[in-house]
Amino acid sequence: MVMATPTDQTPPTIPRLPSNPTPLSAPQEQQVRDLYYRNVRAKCASEIAAFAECATGRTFTMIYACRAQKLTMNTCMLQYQGPDELDKARAEWFALAGERRRDKEERAKLVEEGKRRHKEWWGLDEHGKLQGKKLETKLERETREAGERVVEGRR
User: Fold this and answer.
1) Taking the model in full, what pTM does it have?
2) Paired strand residues for 124
């Protein structure tokens, strides 16, 4: 009876894990696809511009007149489309996550500052209720009392 040695067996293959294992939501995946398409269009900008220039002012004759430019543009775009480019776009999206978070925090601070100024301008309380005349009389009374304390302190 012949026993198999460990060297006779082939090592089990490990499946390739994605570079970013975090699952993304649908809107996040759309942002990744937008980055992906923008990168492809940037790499083929000259071919796209040549096709657009040829197609300008044409209707159905564009199909025949601009065939060479269209094929060149499509070839270029297909060259840069693929899973590797999508992975690069996903990595770029994750790299920009910190910047997006900072922008979101900045916008939140601006909104809070705007709300504070609005409340201050209109004389609103912390619940957003208009104080009006009641607040004015309260402030006048406080300033009068503060003035009386100053006068009493000088005697």
Assistant:
1) 0.55
2) 130
